[in-house]
Amino acid sequence: MSLDLAREARERSAAPQVDRAVQCQLSAHDGEHFGLLADAGAYGTALWLRWHGTDEAELVVLPDCPVAAPGPDGEGCCLFADHAMQHTWEDAPEEVSCTN
């Protein structure tokens, strides 16, 4: 991520710092990539970095995915609403973590 985008991300979130080495949070796929940067400040939203291949990246605020795993203690999905991929609890635990 460029320094300008990292600076803008810090300004748009409550996070004191943003990791510039963000990785895509989606399971193996083709198309756009999304890396979680920080909570956006508004309840139920987060700041994401979106890019496609080597194209320029952009910051987007997306609502959180509202779906939780089945069962009384179902883990919540760590992605954004309307993601086309499987939910994070459906991935192997070592592949995706909400804290990445």
Structural account:
This protein is α+β, with helices and mostly antiparallel strands and 100 residues long. Helices cover 10% and strands 20% of the residues. It has 1 helix and 3 strands; from the N terminus they run αβββ. The chain has one helix spanning 3-12; strands spanning 33-39, 45-51, 58-63. It has a 3-stranded antiparallel β-sheet, covered by helices on one side. The longest helix is centred in the first third of the chain and has 10 residues, at 3-12. It starts with a helix and ends in a 37-residue tail after the last strand. The model has no long low-confidence stretch (mean pLDDT 81).
Oligomer: single chain
Order of helices and strands: HEEE
Rg over CA atoms, rounded to whole Å, is 14 Å
Q: State the strand order across the main sheet.
A: 1-2-3
**Beta-strand percentage range:** 15-25%
Shape: globular
Overall structural class, as computed from helix and strand content, comes to alpha+beta
Helix content: 10-25%
The chain-level mean pLDDT equals 81
**Could you give a short account of the major beta sheet?**
3 strands, antiparallel
Distance separating the two termini:
16 Å
Low-confidence stretches: none
* Number of DSSP E strands: 3
Number of contiguous helices: 1
